[in-house]
């Protein structure tokens, strides 16, 4: 059975994409610790990040770093936090989020989907896409 992330990547479920290539997709989580909270996910379903092929891991981490640099430029924050937990969805993903303290490192502080403001979520996605030069599908605008 496909993971919820695969369903988002394949368009079966909605997602606010900010980046996408042939190996990795990045989209906003519906349960952010702060607006601008992105999940960087390999297209291929792999449960544990430690089971990724090394080159796949390096690419995933590189995209997460690029998204983190964009988070720093797009949001008023001291750091771009990262977290790999993987218990909530059995599909490798790196959380990248704006951080000013350690509170975001506990996913227990995340907003539920009904607590988020859809307009704020859209603004966050638009800010990240503008900084990354990507369209609504997450692909570079030159390819969109």
UniProtKB/TrEMBL annotation:
Short sequence motif Histidine triad motif: positions: 91-95
Active site residues of this protein: 93 (tele-amp-histidine intermediate)
Organism: Corynebacterium uropygiale
HIT domain sequence ranges: 4-107
Protein name: HIT family protein
Domain of life: Bacteria
Gene3D superfamilies, A to Z: HIT-like
Signal peptide as annotated in the record: none
A Gene Ontology biological process term: nucleotide metabolic process
A matching Pfam family: HIT
Gene Ontology molecular function, alphabetical: catalytic activity
């Amino acid at each position: 059975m496909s993971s919820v992330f695969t369903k988002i990547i394949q368009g079966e479920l909605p997602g606010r994409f900010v980046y996408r290539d042939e190996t990795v997709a990045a989209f906003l989580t519906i349960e952010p610790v702060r607006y601008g909270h992105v999940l960087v996910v390999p297209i291929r379903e792999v449960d544990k990040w430690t089971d990724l092929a090394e080159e796949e891991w390096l690419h995933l981490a590189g995209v997460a770093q690029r998204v983190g640099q964009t988070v720093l430029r797009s949001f008023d924050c001291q750091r771009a936090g990262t977290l790999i937990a993987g218990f909530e969805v059995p599909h490798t993903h790196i959380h990248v989020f704006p951080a000013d303290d350690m509170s975001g490192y506990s996913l227990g502080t995340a907003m539920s989907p009904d607590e988020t403001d859809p307009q704020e979520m859209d603004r966050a996605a638009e800010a990240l896409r503008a900084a990354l030069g990507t369209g609504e599908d997450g692909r570079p605008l030159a390819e969109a």
